[in-house]
Write a structure and sequence with these properties.
The complex is a heterodimer of chains A (66) and B (282). Chain A has two helices and no strands. Chain A is mainly alpha-helical. The two termini of chain A are 17 Å apart. Chain B has one domain. The longest helix of chain B has 30 residues. The mean pLDDT of chain B is 86. The chains are: A mainly alpha (66), B mainly alpha (282).
Chain lengths: 66, 282
C-alpha cells in the first residue's frame, strides 16, 4: 500500500509516539503505569520503538520515484 | 536457579512455571517479594539473552545491517532484510502486551498450583500444534516420507508472512501465565505458519532476544541497589547463559527431525506430578 497521505499519517504517528516516549521518560506522563510518580523507562522505550517502527513503515509506504 | 532458568527458558516447558513450582516443591527460601529477587531474575535473563546473542552473532550482524539498509531504502531486497522486518513486526505486539499487562497477569497467577495446572495445558497445546502439523503433512502427502525429507518441504523463517510474525509475537503474551512456555507457543505458531521445526525454533530464539534483552536492560539500575549480592548473582547469570547456550544448540539439532511431542508428555507428566505432590504436601 503506497500513497503519500498514508506515509505522512505514519510519520505523524511516529512523531506522536516520540513525544509520548519523552513524556514517559521525564515522568510527566503516568498513564497505565504501575506507580504514579517518577519516570517510566519501560513505557518510554516501548513508545520509542513504536516511533521507529512508524517511521520505517512511513518510508516503506512512500511512493518511490523510478 | 541459574541453571534451571537457563535450561528451561528455551525448552518449550516454561521457565516461569518451573521457577514457581520447583522452589515450592523443594522448600527453597526464595521470597518473590524480596527487593533483591527482581535484580536476580534480571541478571538470569541477561545471561540467557547473552547466550542467544553469542549463538546467533553472525546472523544478528546481518539482521542489524539488513534492518538499517531496508529502513533507509524503504524496501526489502534480501532475506536478511526481510527477517529483520519480521522480527520488528513480531516484537511490537509482544512489547506492548509485556509493558502493559505482564506484571498484572503474573501477579494474578503466581501460585505453584496454578503453574502446575498451566504446565498441563502447555503440554496439551504442544500436542495440538503437532497434530495440526501432522494434518498438514498428510494433506501434502508427506506422511510416508522420512522425517528429514518431510521437514525440508516446509519453509524457512524468512518466508513467513508479516501477519504470521505479528500473531506469533502476540502469542508470547500467553507465556505471562506461569506454566505456559514462551518458546512452546512461538515454535507452535511457527509450525502453524508453515515453518520447519528447526526454523520455527530459530525464529522463536531470534524473537526472544530483543524482548529478553530489552526487559533486562531496563531493570539493570536495580542491580546497584543496596543489599544485592552481585558476585553470587553474576555467577548465577553465567550459569544461566551456559545452560541456555547448551539448550539452544541441543534444540536446534533435535528439531532437524524431532517433534514437540516429548516435551508435551513431559509437561503433562510434570504438571500432574507437581499437582499431586503439592496437594499431599510431600
Amino acid at each position: 500500500m503506497k500513497s503519500s497521505p498514508f506515509a505522512i499519517g505514519l510519520a505523524v504517528l511516529g512523531v506522536v509516539f516520540l513525544i509520548v516516549a519523552a513524556l514517559y521518560a521525564l515522568g510527566v506522563l503516568q498513564l497505565f503505569a504501575s506507580t504514579s510518580s517518577g519516570p517510566h523507562f519501560k513505557h518510554a522505550i516501548l513508545f520509542a520503538v513504536l516511533a521507529v517502527a512508524s517511521f520505517v513503515a512511513a518510508n516503506f509506504a512512500r511512493p518511490k520515484t523510478a | 536457579m541459574g541453571l534451571l532458568q537457563g535450561a528451561t527458558e528455551l525448552f518449550p516447558v516454561s521457565s516461569l512455571g518451573h521457577s514457581v513450582i520447583i522452589p515450592s516443591l523443594l522448600h527453597w527460601s526464595f521470597k518473590q517479594s524480596d527487593p533483591t529477587f527482581v535484580p536476580f531474575l534480571v541478571l538470569l535473563h541477561l545471561g540467557t539473552a547473552g547466550a542467544l546473542l553469542v549463538l546467533y552473532r553472525s546472523q544478528w550482524i546481518e539482521i542489524s545491517r539488513g534492518f538499517f539498509t531496508a529502513a533507509v531504502r524503504g524496501s526489502i531486497t534480501t532475506p536478511a532484510e526481510r527477517l529483520a522486518m519480521l522480527l520488528l513486526t513480531g516484537t511490537i505486539p509482544a512489547a506492548i502486551l509485556g509493558v502493559f499487562f505482564e506484571t498484572r497477569i503474573k501477579s494474578l497467577f503466581a501460585s505453584a498450583y496454578v503453574a502446575a495446572g498451566f504446565l498441563v495445558v502447555n503440554g496439551v497445546l504442544l500436542f495440538a500444534f503437532e497434530q495440526l502439523r501432522r494434518r498438514a503433512e498428510r494433506r501434502a502427502a508427506l506422511d510416508t516420507k522420512p522425517r528429514e525429507e518431510q521437514e525440508l518441504s516446509f519453509a524457512q523463517a524468512e518466508r513467513i508472512s508479516f501477519f504470521a510474525a505479528a500473531v506469533i509475537g502476540a502469542c508470547q503474551a500467553l507465556a505471562f501465565l506461569p506454566g505456559i512456555s514462551r518458546s512452546g507457543v512461538t515454535i507452535g505458531g511457527g509450525l502453524l505458519a508453515g515453518l520447519r521445526h528447526q526454523e520455527a525454533a530459530r525464529f522463536s530464539f531470534l524473537l526472544a532476544t530483543p524482548t529478553i534483552l530489552g526487559a533486562g536492560i531496563v531493570e539493570v539500575p536495580q542491580l546497584f541497589s543496596t543489599g544485592v549480592p552481585l558476585g553470587e548473582y553474576l555467577a548465577a547469570a553465567v550459569l544461566s547463559g551456559l545452560a541456555a547456550y547448551a539448550s539452544a544448540r541441543f534444540l536446534l539439532r533435535y528439531f532437524r527431525s524431532g517433534r514437540l511431542d516429548p516435551y508435551g508428555w513431559y509437561c503433562v507428566a510434570a504438571g500432574v506430578a507437581s499437582l499431586a505432590l503439592l496437594h499431599f504436601s510431600l
